[in-house]
Amino acid sequence: MKKILVALIMGLLVMNVQAEKPELDQEKIKLQLQSMGTLADQNAFEYLGRIFSDEVLVDYTSAFGGEPATVPRVELMKSWAGLLPGFDLTRHNLSNMKVMVEGNSATATADITANHYLIDPETGENGFWQISGQYNYELEKGAEGWTIKSLTLIAGPEKGSRDVLGKAGELAQQRLARKESQKISLK
């Protein structure tokens, strides 16, 4: 009787541990989502581009107006490279990620708080803009793994001033060139 009880308890423990184990595809997707923010903040656009599909539907209309657009991932990276390096610091913090996988397709959501800091080099004035909200993603699984094919921002509260966006755009090219010159080569 004692052996049967021990075996039963062990079986329940194993089933419980297996039931709590996240699915590998879900974890791979969460890594891609988290990498999106980290690589953007590091201005690592060549690597950031790898986590997107060749064509990406981008919808930031809730924050900036306009229309959703399907763009080549290279153009998306050029667009971001024309803005983000102009800041002294950006931090895109994703949390509360939820992923639903169906075969080679997936949808995901994540809460986002994006902080943008800029010290004006001419005036020394500290600029700051924060936007919070939710990202909605569609992903596809191909030979190279999971990539983001659709990215929608549902904008929420903002703090600070959007004025920093214009100044960051002016400074981006020069600052990106400086950061590029600091890369190390593994060759």
Instruction: Indicate the overall shape.
Output: globular
Kindly report the spatial arrangement of strands forming the biggest sheet.
2-1-6-5-4-3
SSE pattern, N- to C-terminal: HHHEHEHEEEEH
How many DSSP helices?
Answer: 6
Please give the alpha-carbon distance between the first and last residues: 65 Å
Query: Which percent bin holds the helix content?
Result: 25-40%
**Structural class computed from helices and strand pairing:** alpha+beta
Strand proportion, as a percent range, falls in 35-45%
Overall pLDDT level: 91
Radius of gyration based on Cα positions: 21 Å
Number of strands: 6
* Low-pLDDT regions: none
Offer a concise description of the structure:
39% of the residues lie in helices and 40% in strands. With 187 residues, it is α+β, with helices and mostly antiparallel strands.
Overview of this protein structure:
By secondary structure, the protein is an alpha+beta fold. 39% of the residues lie in helices and 40% in strands. It contains 6 helices and 6 strands, in the order H-H-H-E-H-E-H-E-E-E-E-H. The chain has helices at 2-20, 24-41, 45-48, 61-64, 73-81, 163-181; strands at 52-59, 69-72, 89-102, 105-119, 126-142, 145-160. The protein has a 6-stranded mixed beta sheet. Strand 4 (105-119) and strand 5 (126-142) form a beta hairpin. The chain starts with a helix and ends in a 6-residue tail after the last helix. The mean pLDDT is 91.
